[in-house]
Amino acid sequence: MTDPIEPTDVRALLEKYAFKLTDHRRELLQKVVDQRVRHFTMVLEDLKDPHNISAVIRTSEVFGFQDVHVISEVNPYRVGRSVLKGSYKWLDIYSYSKRARCLQGLKDKGYKIAVASTSSASVPLDQVDLSRPTAFYLGSETMGNHPDTLAAADIRFMIPQYGLTESMNVSVAAGVLIANLDRWLKDHGRKNFRLSDPEREALLAAFYERSAVGVDRNSPIHFID
Question: Where in the chain is the domain with CATH 3.40.1280.10?
Answer without folding.
Answer: 38-193
